[in-house]
Amino acid sequence: MLGRIAWRNVLRNKRRSFILISSIVVGVVALVLTEGFAVGMLQQMLTNQIGTDAGYVQIHKRGYQSDPTLENSMTDPGPVRRLLEKDSTVLDYSERLRVYGLISSAYNSYGVSIVGIVPNEESRITTISKDVTKGTYLSGKPGQILISTSMAEKLKVGLGDKVVIMASQKDGSIGSEACRVAGMFETLNSGFDQSHVYIPIQTARQMLNASGLVSEFVINPKHLHEMNKVVSLIRRSIQALSGASDRNEVLTYEQMLPLLVAQLELYKQALYLIAVLIAFALIFGIIDTMLMSVMERTHEFGVSMAVGMSHGRMFMMVMTEALFLAIAGTAIGLAVSYVVMSQLSHTGWDLSMFSASLRSLGVGSVIYPVIQTSSVIQTVLIIPIAALLGAVYPAMKAVRLQPVEAIRAS
C-alpha cells in the first residue's frame, strides 16, 4: 500500500518527476561513459605496450630485469629454446639480444635500445612488422636496420642510407656496425619510436662479439585466459632444467610493466572518486526536488497525520518516492549507456586532433570504451543510495510538520 501511494505521488507531478529522472539519467550516462573511456584508454595503453614490445611472458637470466646489461644475458639459451619448442601451451616465442647503444648518421647521433631479433619469429610475437610504413621489414640479411620515421627525420636519412650503430661489448670495448635502412616503422607510442631500432640478431651478435647470447625470450601463450596456468607450467619446466631455477626467471607483463599496471589500478581507484562526486551532485538535486514536493503537499501531510498516519510511515513514503525516481532514472540511464557504449565500442571515439598527445601516452587516436560489470554494479548501488541520502532531509521536514498548522496551510 505504501509503495502504491508513493508511486502515485511520483506520477502526480509528471514534469517535476521527469526533470529529476532526466538529471539522474544524465548522471548515470556521464558516470558509465567516463569510466568506460578512461578504462578503455588505459587498457589500450597496456595492450599496445604488450603488442609492440613486451609480449605477455618473458624469460630472462635472473637479475636481467633489474639490470638489463649484456653481462646479464643468457649464455646457454639452447635448453630454454628446446623447452619452448615442445611446450604445447606456447603459441609463439621469439628470442632477442638487446643492448643500449648509439646510432649515428652523417648529421646526428642518438642513444637508442638496439634490439637484435629473429625477424620471422618477432613478426609472430609483436606488431612491429605490421607497423612498417616505408620500405620493408627485416629479411634477416646482415647489415639491415629498421628504424622509426621520427628517428629517420632526426638522423636525416632515408631508405637505403647508411647509419652506424655502436655499443659496448662484454669486455668493455666498443663494437660497431654499418647498416643500411631497410624500412621505417611507426607505432602508437612516439616515445618507443624514438628509442628503439631493430637489426637481425646475428648482426647484433657479430657487433657485440656475443656469439649465442640471448637477452630474453618473449612468449605469447596459446590461451590468454589461462595465462597464469601457462606461466606456472613454464616455470615448473624451467626449474626442471638442470640448474635453470638458479639461472633463469619467468616474468609476466604485470611484472615487466609494473608502472603501467599500477597506473591502470590508480585510475580505476580515481574513478570511484568521480562516481562519488557525481553522486553528491545528484544528492543536492534530489534534496531540492523532494523538498519542493514536500512543501507543496504540506496540507496533505497534515491531513494524513491527523487521520493516524505515523511519523515512520510518513518518512518511509517520502523515501520510497525518492527510491522509485532513482530506480527509474538508473534503469533508463543504464539502457542509454549500453546503447551508446555498444556503438562506440565498435566505432570508437576519434580524437585525431589530439593524436600527437595520445601517441606520447602510447594510445592511438581512436579510443574504444570498455563496458565493465563492476561499473554497472557500482552505478546500481551508488545512485539509489545517493537518492535515499538526498531524500532524508525532505522526509524529516515532512515528519516534523505539526498537523494543525499543516492542515491550515493552503
A few lines on this structure:
The chain has 410 residues and is an alpha+beta fold. It contains 16 helices and twelve strands. The two termini are 27 Å apart.
Task: Give me the secondary-structure topology.
Layout: H1 2-12, H2 14-54, E1 57-61, H3 78-86, E2 90-104, E3 109-117, H4 119-125, E4 132-135, E5 144-148, H5 149-155, E6 162-168, E7 174-185, H6 190-193, E8 196-200, H7 201-208, E9 216-221, H8 227-240, H9 244-247, E10 248-252, H10 253-256, H11 258-296, H12 298-306, H13 311-347, E11 349-350, H14 355-360, E12 366-367, H15 373-399, H16 403-408
Parallel strand pairs: 3-8, 5-7
Antiparallel strand pairs: 1-9, 1-10, 2-3, 2-6, 2-9, 4-7, 6-7, 11-12
Give a written overview of the molecule.
The chain is of the alpha+beta class and 410 residues long. It has 2 domains: 2-50 and 260-408, no CATH class; 92-214, Beta Barrel (Barwin-like endoglucanases). It is 57% helix and 19% strand. It has helices at 2-12, 14-54, 78-86, 119-125, 149-155, 190-193, 201-208, 227-240, 244-247, 253-256, 258-296, 298-306, 311-347, 355-360, 373-399, 403-408, and strands spanning 57-61, 90-104, 109-117, 132-135, 144-148, 162-168, 174-185, 196-200, 216-221, 248-252, 349-350, 366-367. Strands 1, 2, 3, 4, 5, 6, 7, 8, 9 and 10 form a 10-stranded mixed beta sheet that branches. Strands 11-12 form a two-stranded antiparallel sheet. The radius of gyration is 31 Å and the shape is elongated. The mean pLDDT is 84.
